[in-house]
Amino acid sequence: MTVRVLLFASYADAIGSPELTLDVPDGARVSDVVERLRLLPGADRLPPAPLVAVNAVYAAAGSALAPGDEVAIIPPVAGG
Amino acid sequence: MTVRVLLFASYADAIGSPELTLDVPDGARVSDVVERLRLLPGADRLPPAPLVAVNAVYAAAGSALAPGDEVAIIPPVAGG
Amino acid sequence: MKDPVHVALTHDPIHAQELIDAVASHSCGAISLFLGTVRDVNDGRAVTGIEYSAYVAMAEREMRSIVDEATQRFPGVRLALLHRVGRLELGEVSVGIAAAHPHRTPALDAARYTIEELKRRVPIWKREQYTDGTREWVDPTARRAEVAL
Amino acid sequence: MKDPVHVALTHDPIHAQELIDAVASHSCGAISLFLGTVRDVNDGRAVTGIEYSAYVAMAEREMRSIVDEATQRFPGVRLALLHRVGRLELGEVSVGIAAAHPHRTPALDAARYTIEELKRRVPIWKREQYTDGTREWVDPTARRAEVAL
Predict the structure, then answer these.
(1) What is the CA radius of gyration of chain B?
(2) Angle at CA A22, nearest 5°, toward A39 and A13?
(3) Whole-number Å distance between alpha carbons of D112 and D100
(4) Residues 6+ apart with CB under 8 A from C46
(5) Which of C149, D106, D122, D137 lies at a C-alpha separation of 20 to 30 Å from C61?
(6) Measured between alpha carbons, how far is residue A47 from residues A6, A50, A75, D132 in Å?
(7) How far apart (Å, rounded) are the C-alpha atoms in residues B30 and C122?
């Protein structure tokens, strides 16, 4: 199945893109997407356990994904 | 000696005047002025121990007064 | 910030932006503003307006003391404090406090400190006017006693 | 108060009076306003401006959640929350919160709750620009770790 990955701020700079489409096995979890991202150049600048949101809601590493999900890797927030 | 007494809000309404001049013995204290006020018509509406300020500073009942002092009887404050 | 202008009693309407401009600074990342306004109901009675009066010299003196104390408690804070006197209609601002600080917590704490101390000790009084035409001086101590029953 | 208008990210300048007007009501006797502004120094470095970006859909969703939570915690509170995105100059308002309530304590508490939660979880990021021409994404967690050493 295909998921859409969003990257922001320092993470987008590290990976070199704000958005990717990834093919992952059916039944893949959030942690599987993060591990796939680690194979990309620049991904060494991601922390060991980045915050993740699925479809705009914070999600645990073990959350199961569905086709077409929007998986956002969330750098430390700095609003205000 | 003479002191100037200021009355505000409900106390001014009770006594019927915002300002009085009182003759008190030399060495009089705040409590002496309050006792003198109690002789006035309407003074039954003053509480047993009203707050008092002397020359615009809160003062204890035992504070000594000097000629010309401004003695203000302060109703419960309600600013804001 | 010119102190005599920004700690004062005033007969004129209080404007939020003027308070903010009085304390804003490029060195400050946070501004906390508090406004007290005339409410349409108090203690269950329908209010049409409030008349504020003060022991002017002492009120301004206490207001300056409070601002000085807040500045000591929250070093680096920039404060403005205005209180209205005279007749106010529903919704009008009776008191305005602005506190600016490099960081948010002291800005928030300083604004809160200032309104709490003002209510505790600044010699200002208010007479509420009610829809039935009567008016009464507000005594917060009497009200607290009733609530305690 | 029209909710979609008053909980939002915006590219436009944030005006204090608009936030106040959005929450003011004759039933409310207290308004607490919080403004975050661009500061000229951060972590000892001279800042010339900040560029804010956000995961827009999620940020607005979290902002609405925070306002809903605050409304539950402080029943009767009326809240407005705006956060700016894009390039901001020194002194400009990055975030504005207004909380109105019949009484002052819930108004003050609700404004504080909202800014604390916003800083904790709303996906907004800022890149500071420094006088030496460099720019850097701000990582509050890294900074906190350094402070803890």
Answers:
(1) 12
(2) 60
(3) 12
(4) C40, C130, C131
(5) D106
(6) 16, 6, 9, 28
(7) 20
Residue C145 pLDDT > 70, yes or no?
Answer: no
**Contact yes or no for D124/D49 (Cβ under 8 A):** no
Query: Which H helix or E strand runs over C37?
Result: strand C30-37
Residue C143 predicted with pLDDT over 80: no
pTM: 0.94
Identify the weakest region by mean pLDDT among A4-13, C4-13, D119-128.
Answer: C4-13
> Residue D129: CA atoms inside 13 Å, Cβ hemisphere, count?
11
Q: Retrieve residue A77's tokens.
A: 């927030």
Hey, which residues 91-130 in chain D have their CB within 8 Å of chain A?
A: 94-95, 115, 118-127
The CA angle A62-A65-A71, to the nearest 5 degrees, is 90
Q: For residues D82, D83, D87 and D89, what is the CA-based torsion angle, rounded to 10 degrees?
A: 70
Contacting chains of D (3 CB pairs or more, <8 Å) are A, C
- Tell whether the model's pLDDT for residue D128 goes beyond 90: yes
Distance from CA of C2 to the nearest CA of D (A): 19
Residues of C with CB below 8 A from B75's CB?
Answer: 125, 137, 139
ipTM metric: 0.94
Q: How far is CA D38 from the centre of its chain?
A: 12
At A4, which amino acid appears?
Answer: R
